User: Fold this.
Amino acid sequence: MLFSHSKSMESFLKLGMASTDEVLSGKIRAEQISTVMSYTPWMMLANVINASAVFAVFYDSPYQMRALIWVVCVFAISILVAHRWFKVRKKSKPKSISIKAIKHAVTNAALLGTVWGVSGPLLYPYASADGKLVIICVLAGMLCGSGFALSTVPPAAITFAGAVAIGTVVALTMTPSLASFLIFLMAIIYIGIIANSSVSLSRLLTARMTAEVTSQEQRDVIGLLLNDFTENASDWLWVVDRKLKVTQVSARLSALTGLPANHYIGKHLLRGVPVINAETMSDEEAGSFHDLKQCLRKRTHFKDAVIPVILNGQKRLWSVSAKPVLTDSGDFNGYRGVGRDLTEELEAKARNAYLARYDTLTELPNRVLFRTDLELALARLHRSGEQFAVLLIDLDHFKMVNDTQGHPEGDLLLKGVAKRLLSAIRDVDTVARLGGDEFAIILAGIDRPHDAARFAERVRNDLALPFELTASDAVIGASIGIAIGSKGSVDADTLLRHADLALYRAKNDGRGMFHFFEPEMDAEARKRHQLEADLRSSLVKEELELYFQPLVNIDTKAVNTFEALIRWNHPKLGRLNPADFIPLAEEVGLIQSIGAWVIQQACREALNWPSHIRVAVNLSPAQFRSPSLFTQIQNALEDTGLPANRLEIEVTESLLLDASTNVDAILSALRHLGVRISLDDFGTGYSSLSYLQKFKFDKIKIDRSFVNDIDTEPGSQAIMDCLIRLAEDLHMSLVAEGVETEAQLKSLKARGCLEIQGFLIARPCDAASLVRFFDTTDPQTIITAAVS
Ligand code: C2E
Ligand code: CA
Ligand code: CA
Assistant:
């Protein structure tokens, strides 16, 4: 009840305490109370002795009783306080104390102060002159002594001193005299001094405590960080004195070097470890080491200085950083720093840098480094006019070696190629592997394209020689595209593209060739690109169309089959023939979707024809590489409802060469379905009678080249005679393609050829013309109509 919870009381209890942080305040209070506690027994003893002295003044006086009661009160309170002190004395000093303890101290101070204050009016006026002197001395002593003892808790000190002072002042006014007045003044001064010094003492305490708490926190944080550092990092700490002699070094260094920590103590910073010989340092290392020594001489800080050292006979690279330690007066007093073993890190960096620029298999520069060298060659060209040549080399048949003999053999072959290319170039040239079986060369200082041609010729011949592999020898070849870096050359990309176009041409001209870039190639390539883009959208835009050409019986002129021939109605280029876009479609992988459309469309159209007429569809070898070809055909038949025996597919001999696809199985499955199979363009390409044995075709179509001169050329006639017999014996039908003249027709007829196809009978026509053809009863008239 003594303290209500008013604001002013709160601030009174916090008097002298500058902190608003409750945690810190608790710590400060603990400090305040602990100081007071340490004085408590002495204070209580002083209370008892002083009270006894006052009682002695009244001994044997009429006021003895009054004094006795008073002295008993003092004793009782003193014993009570001392008892409490005794109880808590053994407990360890608390870290934090609540404001209640301050209230408690103030209550005690108020109680004792009141008892002492009361002694003034109660006893002082009734004492003898000597007695008055004793009492006033005791009161002054209590006022100052207790005020001082309680000074760390200003509210307690002020309460106590205030109570005593009020009592003293009242007593003095009861006995007015000059002495009383002077003592009165003294009492006022004392209380002023006590209040003031108590508050400032408490402030000092607060300041000290705040500083202590903050620095403890900092110590904790640093301790944590250091712990973390020594436990996790590979770094070590070191300290040297002003003569650069090691005074401290962390255990990690010992762990790293295998030498005990005291091996380093007392040794010069750079002599505790064996630094490698200056002559064997790289320029970079020597530079960094020199800079470090410079810093040490100037006593300045340094960061990430590299020291190459010898450890267990091996060179290691250490990095050190340090800051100078200064004395209070600012003099240099050594260094404190960290050290780190950088070796692995630098090795990894170097390895990564190597991997980023070199091909690991052949150890030739890779595309990245090649690019850099090409830029350098361009820079030289622009600076001094030095011309150069860029050669792109593509190995022929590498894939075959890789597929048939395995990747390890393929790798060996690539290494062999790299070796031959390396020995072909000069120091100033670059040879790189751009990836896969693609290599590139930069020939420096090429004055005439002729020099580059001679070099290309040599490389081509080198690479055409057999390569010795583990199991057997491999013979491959190379196609080479050449672009010359000369005045007009602007950038690396363009040059590479030019070399690439030249390479494309070289490959198309038949492998094992080299070709220079020509400006027309650029335009061609652009055209091709555009055409490819257009072709991609041609299906969606419904620009493709099927034309049909009849295969007719020579005698009756009756049609038994129509061959479907694709046309592309290009919005700008007009109607395009298959030769203009089918090879492109095959090359860029569009043949699969175009082929699927052709099959569907051909089946759908055939349904509009008389039911004895078949439709023939051309299939590219590339279509056989798609695993879905069989289902494509099956679905087309099912979707349209065309009987399978009304569908014929035309394949070429080159298809049978391709060992990698499952051609036989697909053809057999189709045959099983009822689809008829024709061998197209017979007599071109790889013509071999063995194919006719390998697979039993329903029909062979003799290529136009044999029909062309059938009326004049005895050789062609002999072949034709032979083929007609063969077809008969093998029970295949035979068709002569490309019959254009009556003479050809007559000759074929004379030899016993039964079926023909050609402009003489009919040109390929669109589906609508066909329907008109079937609407009439006289086939001859309609054929003529279709031709016209
Ligand atoms: P092919 O299979 O040999 O087709 C016959 C080609 O000869 C057709 O050319 C046709 O118009 C032409 N021709 C017919 N009679 C005569 C003649 O009396 N004289 C001359 N000079 N030519 C004649 P087209 O339509 O330009 O087709 C060329 C090639 O394109 C075809 O040769 C075929 O291999 C391919 N092709 C056509 N359509 C397709 C298709 O849908 N898919 C695939 N993969 N290839 C197709
Ligand atoms: Ca054909
Ligand atoms: Ca043909």
